[in-house]
Amino acid sequence: MLSDNNASRIVKKLLVETARLSLEENLEEEIDRLVINMIPKNSAANRCCVHKDRAVIKYRLMAILGRSIEDEQDELKPLSEYAKETLNREKITEPVLTVIDEACSACPSGRHFVTNVCRGCVARPCMVNCPKDAIEIHNGRAEIDEDRCVNCGICLKVCPYNAIVEIPVPCESACPVGAISKDQSGKEKIDYSKCIFCGRCMTSCPFGAIMERSQIIDVAKKLAEGRRVAALTAPSAAGQFPCDFKQLKGAILKAGFGEVLEVAEGADITAKKEAEEFEEKIREGQKFMTSSCCPVYKEAAKKHIPELWEFISDTPTPMEFAGRRAKADSPDCITVFIGPCIAKRQEALEGSSIDHVLTCEELGAILVAKDIFVRETNHAETLGSASIEARKFAVSGGVTNAVKTHLSGSTEIKPELIDGLDKKNIKKLSDMCKANTDANFVEVMNCKGGCVGGPGNLSSPARAAKRIEKSFE
Amino acid sequence: MKKILVEICTGTTCHVMGSEAIMEIRDMLASRFKDIVEIKATSCIGLCRERNAEQAPFVKVNGRVVPEANLLRVTQMINEIERGD
């Protein structure tokens, strides 16, 4: 599914504009004006008025500058001061997400509501079956008494006209681990002791109230200064632009990156080591082993399925191997991982080989800001030396296929795929630890379809997978 | 009836701003358009350079420009052209 909507387009416009100002080394001087440029005086307001729209844009820009909105001390502090601090910062801080309370609409929670599809029927199954006597008929139509209703949902199930709906809170419904909920004022707040950084709250909020704390300015600044910056492209990044990989590589080099390394080369090392580890662990009698490259899954295991931890492979991720290699080749270089994932920001913070993480969306913004047209860019001379299996790591089933190619044959692999880490699959993984299972190798991908379905992507998973296939055939 | 040509720009700006979602329009069109609408992905048509890049993504329907294109706007333009407006 593509997530093209007005909220995401506003963020992308802001990313492009801030990247442009940053590359022109004009960010501090111009960023306050950007708010007015985005929402001029007589523009049609998305919210109640242009002033509210401008306030939200200011907070969005704060997130793009890498700040937590929750940390705001002084409402009068201008964006130019935040920009100055970002331009001077050396270290990235946690957490990777932030909630713009000004943008949050405090959606009414989990309420059941009778729509005008209700025909006030004689059977009245909603009324008869309500265990709390919360439904009455007024003017020939059912009405729910909110004080009595306990949101059990029986009325919704029994209505033959589908006239009763449950109004969800999109971010809360999307979160598979219950990490986001309302505070006393009704605005959403993330509990980071539960959050697994999957980004579902961010992509599901229709008000765009949840944002990532971007590192686009940090990267743009280093490019503008002419520092040696290495781009480490995730396997899924190869499918995100309307061109083949060699051309994308050419475009990234043109944008000022010193070199482009494929994280797929790290994936080759991960697959090889994971195959050895799998054979060894199964030989020693371990019931099963799971893949370890999805940071959302690892975060979920750490915080919500601790019994699963011992079954996760100890092998480092492709990003980690690729980062280590880049730092070994050139210790002074700035390593920038480019992929679709929000949790990679967290993984990078915990490790030491990756300095910055950009989403494919943010890379796109840098290319636009630099007026680089990928389809008109010259192909890079070399493609890289990763195997085709490693390059397909980003599509569900890809890790299993890559691991298979490195098996010695001493142990029979019985793979299982967890494609999308929802509530059901989290329970399934927990059950696997307790009960017997037929599988001995479990590949877990948080995003449906694999990393090509990540929240920071530009293309639909199907199109991205097809492009990867075509780029490396 | 003469064919209606929908040209979707796949230049970087239009792509980043969401032009790829418009490729799905083939499945969304009313059945009467099935044989008369031709959908084509084009290289950068240069409109983001001429005009304000903020108006991307751009789509051309029989040469008429649809700025800030989305499925709705493009479908409306196809309808307008069919009506002869």
Question: How would you describe this protein?
Answer:
The complex is a heterodimer of chains A (473) and B (85). Chain A is of the alpha/beta class and 473 residues long. The mean pLDDT of chain A is 95. Chain A starts with 5 loop residues before the first helix and ends with a helix. In chain A, the strands form six sheets. Chain A has a four-stranded parallel β-sheet with strand order 10-9-12-13, sandwiched between helices. Chain A has a three-stranded parallel β-sheet with strand order 11-15-14. Chain A has three domains: 6-106 and 171-217, 2-Layer Sandwich (Alpha-Beta Plaits); 111-167, Alpha-Beta Plaits; 227-471, Fe-only Hydrogenase (Larger Subunit), Chain L, domain 3 (3-Layer(aba) Sandwich). Chain A has helices at residues 6-23, 27-38, 50-64, 79-88, 125-129, 154-158, 170-174, 200-204, 216-224, 245-254, 263-283, 295-304, 318-329, 343-350, 360-369, 388-391, 398-405, 423-434, 461-471; strands at 97-99, 111-114, 135-138, 141-144, 164-167, 180-182, 188-190, 210-212, 229-233, 259-262, 289-290, 334-339, 356-359, 415-419, 441-445. In chain A, α11 (263-283) crosses α17 (398-405). Helices cover 40% and strands 12% of the residues of chain A. With 85 residues, chain B is an alpha+beta fold. Chain B has one domain: 3-Layer(aba) Sandwich (Glutaredoxin), CATH 3.40.30.10. In chain B, 31% of the residues lie in helices and 21% in strands. Chain B has four helices and four strands; from the N terminus they run βααβαββα. Chain B has helices at 12-16, 25-28, 47-50, 71-83, and strands spanning 4-9, 37-42, 59-61, 64-66. Chain B has a four-stranded mixed β-sheet, with helices on one face. The mean pLDDT of chain B is 90. Classes of the chains: A alpha/beta (473), B alpha+beta (85). Chain A: This is Iron hydrogenase 1. Chain A: InterPro entries: 4Fe4S_Fe-S-bd, 4Fe4S_Fe_S_CS, Fe_hydrogenase, Fe_hydrogenase_lsu_C, Mono_FeFe_hydrog, RnfB_subfamily. Chain A: Residues 140-169, 186-215 form the 4Fe-4S ferredoxin-type domain.
